[in-house]
């Protein structure tokens, strides 16, 4: 597994320096595995979210969106299987008292091995996980002399399950409060609203319900920046279908979701499918779309054929019928479901990883370099930066007129300070695709200099065409 830890650390540093992502509660020494999005990170995240939402709800006539609550009735999580099954195998080192997720511990060790040995070790681990063979997993760790990073010893406890849900109290007085959970996924909010949406929207199967929202998991070993966090955001769509058609729809959504990732401008060589070896309790087929991060190929999105498990369970636990009458075949049935579930934070990290470049621009006469984020224009936090060449001679007034005409349509940035070269470099570092400079020639012939981020080429275009050109690029 090829990794580039130097690039990964450079991206993390860049995100902090340029206002993309900060450690949460940093002035209090931070909160582990929780992050805040800064001014440009929030815009990037919003643009990805909006692009996904549009691709699901606006571009499909049979998919609608909802926004369900984070707090839900606790029986929902019993019905869904999360109370009994939402857990990961953990192991503790007796000398350091440090707890590890077993698969992370073994995967971390595998990264230090040659490719063939690493593949064999991962295959052994996946086979044991599939069988829930905890004794075998411990033996695998001990046989390979996998050490604790803190103590350096192989003195391990037995492997056991650890539930990942956060619990809290709902009620005004602690004695009267009842235990509820912060949702570990957004999917159940869709399932419990299946009939509400179907009836009020007069939806006919096949149809989908999409949702974007926060989810919470008590990850014991949360690591790798925003890749694995305790508070994160999901973009999920549950597609309700007639039983017996799940293979066709699973294949359809598997292909559609890969096309969506490629539409983000990602190199196809950096994307791959990974079929699940061990299926979740609700699935009859599951695949991940993985991206080649600097830390290796990792899951960004899952496509799952969930059968009728969820709606059947909610029918059983609630006592309410979750059936659909299909007029085409004159039958009542509980629909099957195909799920697409993508992590928005992981998607942000994916776009940052794909876009980040360190370029050496040195010539024989001069040392020079730049860091650039080559975001697709539609995702870039700022679409257009507007620079008057000087602070006088009426140039700022012209620049501000352009700003006023563009900012209602897309995010712009205005700056007068510093030499024009320094201004360009700052915009390169935050991924702004276009910079326009207003100079004295603008007053003479109504043209401006537009500079393209990726090539650094410049050309003169009419001032009146700037807005239309940027709009066209962000719609591509």
From TrEMBL:
One of its GO terms (cellular component) is cytoplasm. Residues 165-388 form the Aminoacyl-transfer RNA synthetases class-II family profile domain. The keyword Cytoplasm applies. GO terms for molecular function: ATP binding; bis(5'-nucleosyl)-tetraphosphatase (asymmetrical) activity; glycine-tRNA ligase activity. It comes from the Bacteria. Keywords: Aminoacyl-tRNA synthetase, ATP-binding, Cytoplasm, Ligase, Nucleotide-binding, Protein biosynthesis. ATP binds at residues 217-219, 227-232, 299-300, 343-346. It is found in: Cytoplasm. GO terms for biological process: diadenosine tetraphosphate biosynthetic process; glycyl-tRNA aminoacylation. Substrate binds at residues 101, 185, 232-236, 339-343. Signal peptide: none annotated. The keyword Cytoplasm applies. Its EC number is 6.1.1.14. It catalyses: tRNA(Gly) + glycine + ATP = glycyl-tRNA(Gly) + AMP + diphosphate. InterPro entries: aa-tRNA-synt_IIb (IPR002314), aa-tRNA-synth_II (IPR006195), aa-tRNA-synth_II/BPL/LPL (IPR045864), Anticodon-bd (IPR004154), Anticodon-bd_dom_sf (IPR036621), Gly-tRNA_synthase/POLG2 (IPR027031), Gly_tRNA_ligase_bac (IPR022961), GlyRS-like_core (IPR033731). Belongs to the class-II aminoacyl-tRNA synthetase family. Homodimer. Catalyzes the attachment of glycine to tRNA(Gly). This is Glycine--tRNA ligase. It comes from Chitinophaga lutea.
